[in-house]
Amino acid sequence: MPADRPIGIHDLSFSTTSLVLTHAELAAHTGAALGKYHHGIGQKEMSVPAVDEDIVTMAADAAAPIIERHGAGRIRTVLFATETSIDQSKAAGVYVHSLLGLPPNVRVVELKQACYGATAALQFATALVHRDPTQHVLVFAADIARYELDTPGEATQGAAAAAMLITAEPALVEINAPSGLFTHDVMDFWRPNHRTTALVDGKKSLTAYLTALAGAWHDHRAHHGPPIEEIHTVCYHQPFTRMAHKAHRHLLETAGTPADTATIEHAVAPTIRYNEIIGNSYTASLYLALAALLEEDDKLDGRTLGFFSYGSGSVAEFFTGQVTPGYRTALRTRAHREAIARRSPIDYDTYRRLHTQPPHTDGGRHALPHRTRGRYRLAEIHDHQRIYEPAPTRGETHPATEGP
Ligand code: HMG
Prior knowledge:
Elements: E1 7-16, E2 19-22, H1 23-30, H2 34-41, E3 45-48, H3 55-70, E4 75-81, H4 92-99, E5 107-111, H5 117-131, E6 136-145, E7 158-168, E8 173-183, E9 189-190, E10 199-200, H6 202-222, E11 233-236, H7 241-254, H8 261-268, H9 275-278, H10 285-296, E12 304-311, E13 315-323, H11 333-341, E14 344-345, H12 348-356, E15 366-367, E16 376-382, E17 385-390
Parallel strand pairs: 2-14, 4-5, 4-6, 11-12
Antiparallel strand pairs: 1-7, 1-8, 2-3, 6-7, 8-13, 9-10, 12-13, 15-16, 16-17
Helix pairs in contact: 3-4, 6-7, 7-8
Bound molecules: 3-hydroxy-3-methylglutaryl-coenzyme A.
């Protein structure tokens, strides 16, 4: 039998794209009041991928510092969660495995269930480590959120990848065993295989999210998960950050401890720093909320955190974790802030041009210009194959906004 040791998130690193569109720039063209974006939905900026960036380049960029710190020798499994898949057959994680130079004796698979996929990956990873606590599992959550231009969803786009190393004796957060689960067949948000943008029933999606939150919470309590009074802060999936406020209000009411607006604002504030300037990153969003919280609050030693993961369609999970004493020494605050600061602002016309660029589907050779500021790039698409490479080092000047 394996030893009964704590298992959870040992390292957490994220990356985003090299371009950013501000909501002020977006509002100037959509005619929306800026207050609607900044306060009504709680978004200030959103990451936009350059032509040589995708889920693979972001994921490799996020994980490279983890491999540098811990080595790759104990990684036996790579789980890649995404709903922005680049291939119907080959797992995106296989490209990342190659870019990072991971050893061949590793299993790599891709998981999908909208924004929930990474939480399934995290739970599967803890089970694998429980079976053999000497092994490490590398979990990815990587997505690019894309809606049609000129739709209400447009203001809730974004992109990022989170990489997490799941181990025994984790340095950041131990994942607790009781979980609350909820699945309900609902058409609130979906993307058929032939589409590059999501379809959504916005209002229905808000209700579906809150219904799933209550359902997962009740199941969490039924499985002896801790009561609300014992949970210090809850990290929510944040398709837009105002959703976390709505969710927290709903959870407190469901748990029988309603609170005023100021209390809710205060509780949610430390979890939204990254999501409000990156936008919806689907699978990664919940784990960006965790990164923000751990970096913002230096008094979490031993505290119980709550996590609510929601994936449209829908599957949801409420679970908890214990913050490891001394967690601050394992954080990557500077690197995360640099990843955000290195983004180049683009104007509305550039955003629109990038958004409407057709995918390369003719099987010809399409060399892509070097635009990313990350460590890896999509160099070309040739014969329907995606060719990735480490990005050459570039000087201070950055033609990220030159097109296409
Ligand atoms: P909308 O119609 O553009 O916005 O859609 P609205 O008219 O409902 O306004 C939004 C809020 O802004 C309202 O506040 C307004 O009052 C306020 P609320 O009533 O909600 O409290 N407002 C203002 N506030 C201040 N100053 C002003 C002002 N004007 C208005 N001047 C919607 C918004 C979120 C529906 C849209 O953006 C959308 O469809 N987004 C995509 C769907 C989505 O994010 N759903 C979230 C739940 S589903 C989910 O989380 C899963 C997902 O991540 C996908 C996956 O799982 O893979 C999406």
